[in-house]
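Dear support,

I submitted the protein below through the web form. The confirmation email said the job was done, but the results page showed an empty box. After a refresh the structure appeared. I'm attaching both so you can tell me whether what I see now is the final result or a partial one.
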Amino acid sequence: MVSNAGKRVTDYEIAELFGRAYEATASLEKAKNGFQKTGIFPYNPDIFTEEDFQPSQVTEREQPFSDDTGEDRSLEIEIEHPVSSQSTCQVTERERPLSDDTGNR
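What the results page shows now:
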């Protein structure tokens, strides 16, 4: 690819390039090590500590849907059934309070 800078790579060429790289690097030993290091086989539920999961905690809280005015701008979508290839759905905007910490609305 260095000798053809700017040339587009087709789907077929991607498969060929991947196949060559995979064959050159893949091995049974690497696969076995991958399963062992992640605790999949042999099973080890203690392979990761709580600290390892801390970065994901920022996604565990509910995000409010409000604009700069502080007004709730949440959307509720109503879909009429039965669904067919020609059916439509109506999207309406309603004011409703955000969920409290218990998940109640």
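Response: this is the final, complete result; the empty box was a page-load delay. The first helix runs from residue 11 to 25.
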